[in-house]
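Predict both folds.
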Amino acid sequence: MGSAGSPLRTAAGARSESMPRVTFLPHERSIEVPAGDSLIRAAMEAGVHINASCGGDGVCAKCRIRVEAGTVDGGLSERISPEDREKGYRLACQALITGDVTVRVPVESSIDASVLKRQATPRSTARIHQPDFESLKEEGLFVSPVEEVFLELPEPSATDNQPDASRLVNFLTMNHDEHRLVVRMPVIRKLPGALREDNFRVTATLARPVQPGRKTHIINIQPGDTTDRNYAVAMDIGTTTVYGQLIDLISGDVLAESGDFNGQISYGEDVITRIMAAEKPGGLEKLHAVVTETMNTIIAKIVKQAGVDVDDINAITIAGNTTMTQLFLKVDPRYIRRSPYVPASNIYPPLDAVGLGLELGDHAAALVYPQVSSYVGGDIVAGVMGSGMSRTDKLTLFMDIGTNAEIVVGNKDWMACAACSAGPALEGGNIEFGMRAAKGAIEDFSIDPLTLEPMILTIGNVRPKGICGSGLITTVAVLFETGVINNLGKFERDLGTPRIREKDNVYEYVLAWADETQVERDIVLTEIDIENLIRAKGAIYSGCMTLLNEVGMGMSDIDRIILAGGFGSYVDLEKAMTIGLLPEIDPDKVTFIGNSSLMGAKMSSLTNRIRKDVVEVTRSMTNFELSETPSYMDNYVAALFLPHTDITQFPRLAARLVDRASRD
């Protein structure tokens, strides 16, 4: 691979005398790069992932590596202790290559894709619900946007020598009541051979229009009867992960599914950092290529798992947030992050999948979910459609929580939506030992109320190497309810335990001593970490309250809450309410629906009615820009406490705190 303005990189193989060689352990992968490049850029070129949530600014300190041979220039940080500096630890984004060097990527800086296959084991989590796609049939909605029709055409003769394309169109018009047909150029190229391979017995693939009266496109032609092989791919392009499913459009069954981390995470873990990367010369093309490569890897996996022919895949339906969608479509996203926050488009026409770089047949159509605004994207619209929120009378609060939190309130008659920036704390960012949910992440926590000694559980039941978002919520909730921290998130100073200590003028609680961890350091939770969590939960809670206030409602009016995304499957609902992340509500009213974006993409591939309705639903969703809503800041400031300045909004928690105080 090359890079603008620098010589061609050389992977392990022929040696260029002019460029240093960088070797990454334990991957045993080497690459030659120009002197002066950073280690993080060399890792990208070599295909080695190193966590770098700040996009290379050196502020997150997640990209720690250890220099084992050779030297680098820079890479030191106040976030690296003097002891670790002596051991060779540096920040990869700040360390510049000066000569041959061998570095080790430690466990806490690497990526673990095994967690993508992990299933939730609910304790106090929301009830998990997946829609019954049989209901689509019962409602008469199971009519795929892409249909295959078997035809036995009359063969040409001296008295019937009309062109092949005309023969096809006229036969469909007369015998199948098809009108306003368009034959695509790839079909015309295939038509002479396909017709004559099986004596003019062929299968035509028709792409149905969303609106009545529009043209139906003939997108593929195959010899013989292939109507038993009609497939689609549904795909969710997330900021962190990409998931895909291979769907049988005849039965509605998912034949295979797979997921992977979005290759763009090496360019930053949030959408703003990605937009900034896209603004650099060649950046947009690079980010498009990287996510397309991830998508093609997933497509190849699910095609192989299911044992189908790529030529039998007739469509791919895609949902993603506004930034991910524009990056995938190679549309400049820079104005998404600039006031007044305008996306390039809300609705995209059907596209040729192969023209977008996807490794599918040249006939396959790409159907991209529309979006509402710069920060309420196609993934949320897909979630609203997939969850059934747009077809129910029940007043629903839909929440998709991550680095950004998107919130929708309403029902089939009306909907209002908003997005708020929660920051990366809930996904491990801006937390000293924060990490994604992966093996070794602390996910559950309890404490002995007398000795204040912790009991922790990690994903995979291995030694800890950090703490994930759900573990962070649980830990802070437990520390608060047991009186170890106060409602400001500050540690009580006189509890007489070595677990609470002061370091560099910051108080912290030791979750695990160095000899108990994978990272050879004490894993701690600091007051700064707690403050970052309080800011994140405050943004989400105040977003809910502001949106409800703006439509003249309160939590008492809500019939149900739907939690979408990976967050909802693992978070303990009671703990989330304890810290004031979620409004206090009967847990039986809360439902987790998993990857609602992928669910909506699947539904869009199965029914043309959803594709028609989604345009109307998108147009009916009133978007509130919280930054322009005066009450939002008031609500936000009020939420910067555990759980809130107004404890009466959390009556069950208030009762527990009173009970604890009486026992103390």
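Second protein follows, with its predicted structure tokens after the sequence.
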Amino acid sequence: MKKESKKRKKNYIKNVFSIYSVWETIQITSVLIIVIGLIDWYDMPSTRIDFNNFTIGIVILFGVFIVTTIKRLYLQEILEIVAINAIELWVCVGIVFSMGYFVFVAILNILETYKIYILCLMFFLLVMIFFVRKWRYEKADTKADEYKGNTIDLKELYEGKISSLDEILLLDESEVDYDLMERHSIINHLYNTLCNCKPQKRFVISLEGKWGVGKSTILRNVKRMIQEQQKDIVVVDDFDPWTYGTEESIVENFFCCLLNNNDLKINTLEMRNSVSVLSKAVIASAEKSDWFERTFLKEKTVEESKKQINEYLRLCGKKIVIFIDNLDRINDEKILFLFKLIGNVLDFDRMIFVVSFDPEVVRNILETQSNIGYNYLEKIIQMQIRVPENDKDVLANVVQVCTMNLLNRYGLSQEKIGDYKLFAEDICDSIKDIREYKRVVNSIIVKVVNNKSYLSRRDLLIIEYIKMKNFSLYQTIYKNRSYFISEDKMYDQEMYLTTFRKEEHEKKVKNFLEKLFDNEENRKYQKMLARVFPYINRFCNKSGYTGVKTLTREQIEKSRGIASAKYFPLYFCDTENELSILGGSIEKYIKEINNNKGDVEKGIKNILNGLGSKVHKEILEVLQLYIPEINKNKLLNFPSRYFQIKPE
């Protein structure tokens, strides 16, 4: 990181002129020298202006105008901006002007002492401003390098190339040129087609598939391979039609991408004129050529312009491949326009278009909104490549490997990782693509891993996942707690009453769950919910849906699970209560005494004194559950008067 920073600092001047070109600086400076030089040569201020009171008043008003204009242009704010901006341009212009004007007036033999003083003062003042700006820029640049991001690429996580974490970590959604979903056959097929295809005319390839199946990743891999291995193919990939609002801007930016491509080297005035004629014809613009084009360039027809562009592209000796991704993101009416543009206007020789889109979205637009059948595309597209849906096994492997690597880097115990492993297995049935998994990691897994509550992490994961994926089911669970809570009912008055009508309640639970899981969308989460709710687990077993192991009453209590009336509301409100706090405190206490880090007698007294007397009974009941986990050598010192400890 430091090496990169030093490199940028050495290239500060280069960075300035990459934004404001040297030719632009020279052009502005030349105009200023000529204009001011002529004024100076003819001595216009003193010979043309009569310095009376009226003139002085005009000068004062002009000065006020200049000051207010500077204020309106927010010059002070611009000066405070550290990044390279117009200040650099005008400072460079001023430095070059002061030197150039000195030479200019010396050649004209009108160099006088006061002019030397003014030009020298101007030069040194601007040089000082330049170096102050440079110093501020480098200082800010160094400070910016100290910023450490906590977003990583999925491939880094998959390969385990991240160190241990002591802070939140998120997955990045930036464009990538690698493939984790084993799309090698499609990537190689498209790459080989583009390398070996030698069309005489325009050739269009469509890459079709649903959102999330990896079309963009396939295109980026192919582009990378071409740029690395095929020097005779020019890739144009910076044309994104969905970022432009109007048909005019789509046409203008397409030709702009073509002209500005360094590999084509066709950015000439003649070509720009031809492009201008063709662009205006496409968008039916009444705008005329500017005076320079009308004076020095021949007036061309559309056909002549198109022929000239085609000849330039043909003789450049390279095959041109234009990638257009996310075609289905643009406005409905623009999709048809773009296909017509590709089919009729942009039919240049040796040019290959690769367009990516969701066929169902485009079909719906063409058939319902444009009143044109999907068969219309058959006239334009010569080759179709369909991208199948993601392989469930491959996706499941990526999900599980990434989840385990993430948890290992957080330093979680194997016991806690086990809860996440089951969760990773469960979500594989409902996650459709990599992008969705990234959202699950950023929105749920990272949140739960960094959660400081004492609730069950596994239960938190499941209920948060359902909240994200099926909010209606989430609300149903919260509003109908009597059909989900199976433990510690005495802590909820409504739930406690159901214990007196057990058979009636069980029948209601069965009817409710049958109706709930009759919904196909809810049924996707049945297995997941059966892990944490014994009622649902029993319902699954009776309905033939087996293979899911739920928790026992003791396990629910020890993990402070959602199926307990003590903790159920906490999972929906992101809060804690005395019961969850005492459970977490006891769990921590047991670990400390097993690791010889705490005093047995003192630790339990601290717990009893730290919580109110109304929960002392619960403290002792929970401690009773942890007796089997206490090391045998600690049992002898454990305050047995509080418990019923059976000797071996």
